[in-house]
Design brief:
Blueprint lengths: L1 E5 L10 H9 L2 E4 L11 H8 L3 E3 L2 H5 L13 E5 L7 H12 L4 E4 L4 H9 L10 E3 L3 E2 L5 E2 L3 H11 L4 E5 L1 E2 L3 E2 L2 H15 L8 E6 L7 E6 H4 L9 E5 L5 H11 L4 H5 L3
Parallel strand pairs: 1-4, 1-5, 2-3, 2-4, 6-9
Antiparallel strand pairs: 7-8, 9-14, 10-11, 12-13, 12-14
Bound molecules: S-adenosylmethionine.
The site of S-adenosylmethionine has 23 residues, from α5, β9, β12 and β14.
Amino acid sequence: MLTFIGLGLFDEKDISLKGLEAIEQADIVFAEFYTSVLMGATVEKLEKLYGKKVHVLLREEVEQDPHWLDQAQEQDVVFLTGGDTMVSTTHVDLRLRAQDKGITTRLIHGASITSAICGLSGLQNYRFGKASTIPHPYTSSRGVTVISETPYETIKLNKQHNLHTLVFLDIDKEKGYMTVNQALELLLKVEDKRKEGVMNNALAVGIARAGSPGPVVKAGYAQMLRESDFGSPLHILVIPASLHFIEAEALVKLAGAPSSLMEESND
Ligand SMILES: C[S@@+](CC[C@H](N)C(=O)[O-])C[C@H]1O[C@@H](n2cnc3c(N)ncnc32)[C@H](O)[C@@H]1O
């Protein structure tokens, strides 16, 4: 049996009681922390609370060669991830690989950043379109810095359908955790290049450390918000479409957006 357990958003105490019970009953515990990270926990803290050794897998061991899956043929194996366990294509793929090997799988859910952003900002979950991820820029073989334009394109298409865009921010071993400030800077650079107006006077909502005792939620125009201090990671960004009046009120009252938003919103 292979049990996927979502650990929630911030530290070792965000796990559900069902998740904790499943770990206690497991023969072996694996985890991956490259798709998301619990910034308030360490592997040692997890091991202390769970009373079990936690084997942290590398990206290659999850995506290319998940040889450890075979242990779930005979034993109770659990696989831990940040957030909710299936808000990630990688984990769906892993589950399908296990099913193909005849391994029974089950899911124990955890709080996800995808619902936390709605709770913290007041933006309505049914108004979100396709999500995107902003990767760190990289240097091409010709020495040119390449900035991905895919997130800009996704925001543009979502806006055309009056849908908000959730923008995940890159977690990279060498380049670190992308901040809201870096993300806005990159989107504004793409705007400078493409000049399609997607980010001109665009409202943005930045959220830091959801699930922690001190989450930060700030809404404002992208040019202003990129100068704002969000503190330590993890960060995430939302580029809203036009706002329902309750959403506008929430952004003004919960996230410090300019009060003029309330006059511009729709009912
Ligand atoms: C690919 S998503 C993983 C989603 C995860 N499976 C979930 O359900 O929450 C990871 C990205 O979400 C954002 N994120 C995750 N947890 C966060 C948190 N507690 N606070 C702010 N952003 C967070 C970061 O931008 C991070 O790079």
